[in-house]
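Q: Please design a sequence for this.
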């Protein structure tokens, strides 16, 4: 019997941050959509579904402050550098095969969970 495997921050995350870090200057300096940089590595097992949970910068800060944890390096960079945040977000949008299915994570946890479960059920017919 096959069972689903759920992972957090797989290749999409590594690629998005690496590309955003390496590309200097404006958003327009990112590799063009469809470029090889956005293609899944052929030697890496690929996922059947990628879900990218997004929130506005304001909501992200509100939630972060509510947690009371120390900032990670990535969170500090996203907060301090709006251009970097925009490059990361755009890179996620440009990655293909498989594309990121973007879900607005602003609603309650229960609502977001239901939306993600619907995506999984639809994709895997469960």
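A: Design:
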């Amino acid at each position: 019997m096959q069972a689903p495997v759920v992972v957090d921050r797989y290749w999409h995350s590594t690629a998005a941050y690496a590309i955003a870090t390496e590309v200097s200057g404006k958003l327009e300096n990112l590799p063009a959509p469809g470029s090889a940089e956005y293609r899944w590595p052929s030697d890496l097992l690929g996922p059947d579904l990628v879900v990218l949970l997004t929130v506005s910068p304001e909501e992200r800060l509100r939630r972060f402050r509510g947690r009371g944890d120390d900032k990670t390096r990535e969170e500090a960079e996203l907060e301090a550098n709006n251009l970097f945040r925009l490059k990361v977000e755009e890179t996620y949008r440009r990655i293909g095969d498989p594309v990121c299915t973007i879900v607005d994570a602003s609603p309650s946890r229960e609502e977001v969970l239901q939306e993600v479960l619907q995506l999984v059920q639809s994709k895997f017919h469960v």
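Q: Thanks. Anything notable?
A: The radius of gyration is 16 Å. The longest helix spans residues 109-124.
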